[in-house]
Amino acid sequence: MASSPKRPKQPQPSTHVRVAVVGSGFGGLGAGVRLRRAGITDFVILERADSVGGTWRDNSYPGCACDVPSHLYSFSFAPNPEWPRSFSRQPDIRAYLERVADTFGLRPHLRFNTEVTELRWDQQAAHWRVTTTAGSWTADAVVSAAGPLADPQIPDIPGLADFPGKVFHSSRWDHDFDLTGKRVAMVGTGASAAQIVPSIQPQVAKLTVFQRTPAWVLPRADREISAAEKWLHAAIPATGKLRRATLFALRELQVDAFVRRPGALKLVQRLAVRNLEQAVADPQLRAKLTPDYRIGCKRILLSNAYYPALAAPNAEVVAAGLAEVRGSTLVDADGGEHEADAIVFGTGFHVTDMPIGERVFGIDGRSLAQEWKGGMEALRGSTVHGFPNLFFVIGPNTGLGNNSMILMIESQLNYLVDALTTLSAIGATAIQPTARAQRRWNLELQHRMSRTVWTTGGCKSWYLEADGKNTVLWPGSTTSFRRATRRVDLAEYEIIKRPVPVATVSQEVPA
Ligand SMILES: Cc1cc2nc3c(=O)[nH]c(=O)nc-3n(C[C@H](O)[C@H](O)[C@H](O)COP(=O)(O)OP(=O)(O)OC[C@H]3O[C@@H](n4cnc5c(N)ncnc54)[C@H](O)[C@@H]3O)c2cc1C
């Protein structure tokens, strides 16, 4: 059979969409729902993994659960009367997000195994060129919901590459590796470690926990949601709303102490000291676990099981931190040696160096990473000067210390939808914040930040840039952020009109 002549490879035409959303966690799925509700159906959700869920797909470590009550840590537009626990576990949260994708008709928009490798603003056409591992798109607007805690960070420890045992990060748990009877080193003592440690301690032969800084730990009021409560929330949805409103109010009331009056946290710190004293009898271990900074400065951990697990006979807390790996020997910063068969890193994520920043190129071809060399900055946590029609969901300074991130996500989605509908209403192609508006917003924000416990509490946390600037957290209540993102104020923006009409190749998803 004659073979057909080889044709030179033609560049594939890009499909044009109105909006390209990056990521399918709470942020990306929420964006999909809100776009559809606003009548915008011409969009794709580009996801590098093979399913939705983001954080709740990737973090499947033993004991993984939310630390904000489920009835608040969920979308306001998708209440779930079936939450099984007050702090539900990862499989239930992941299943919830799968249901959101189904219920709100997001499946036709989702493109899995599609990693965005470049987002480049085309000044001529006034749209974004979106390059991925599975094709390219052009888009009028891009929503970056690539996640604040999506790319694991493993510290550069000398000798780690030659460790003969198993090594993995908490967010990439290796379920094929059985920890039973093994000597396991847990590096890090943050929120993930506090859930992992009590889950694996009974199973392993030896658990060595490498701690740089101890966390303040408060008891967690976790319990099963009774069948009667579930029935009530399903039969009378107002009861679920009331529960959510109560949880919300309790957390909003705490904000003032974090952002304006850190001294008011003294009482909470006393509760945490008592919690430690009750759980840990050994004075030496207690001393290792007592923080030397004010409560709230680093994320407060909620756990009833963490201290008892650390006090168990097969557990050891190494307060000097991990300095070097020599074969199967882990050497702490004081020179102490510890044998291990496996190392689990609970060392967090690339946060202040948001990885998507390396892949976004705005006006004049400048990358977002270059733009943010001095620290991440945006207007209202959402838009960046020089990067028209790029909208962040969980952008700079939108993180929370003590409340549900879904509240912030929904505020940013209000802002996004208002921006897109405003663009249509005024016949504009794109908007970008003025440099002045962005500067003013950040000056005011950092002024407020200077009084917060995150700045004054005497700790070094993952919220801070190397120079100590906090570019991660929102220094206010979620209500004030909701107000700040209710509407786009065009006085803060430059309006861009497309110079020449651009032909649309095809519409991906019909209305
Ligand atoms: C273990 C853990 C527990 C947490 N618990 C809580 C809690 O109790 N309460 C709370 O408020 N917050 C909690 N958080 C914070 C949590 O990250 C947010 O609440 C929320 O889930 C973030 O959603 P997101 O959609 O913005 O990001 P993610 O859920 O991280 O989703 C981002 C998605 O973008 C995809 N992506 C990234 N880059 C690309 C690319 N280049 N191309 C294509 N796709 C890409 C990722 O694969 C991912 O699916 C927790 C975080 C962790 C890690």
TrEMBL record:
Superkingdom of this protein's organism: Bacteria
Q: Which SUPFAM superfamilies match?
A: FAD/NAD(P)-binding domain
| UniProt name for this protein | NAD(P)/FAD-dependent oxidoreductase
Keywords tagged on the record? FAD, Flavoprotein, Oxidoreductase
Q: Coiled coil: which residue ranges?
A: none
| Pfam families from the UniProt entry | FMO-like (PF00743)
Give the protein family: Belongs to the FAD-binding monooxygenase family.
Q: Which PANTHER family match?
A: FAD_NAD(P)-BINDING DOMAIN-CONTAINING PROTEIN-RELATED, L-ORNITHINE N(5)-MONOOXYGENASE-RELATED
Matches recorded under InterPro entries:
FAD-bind_Monooxygenase_sf, FAD/NAD-bd_sf, Flavin_mOase, Flavin_mOase-like
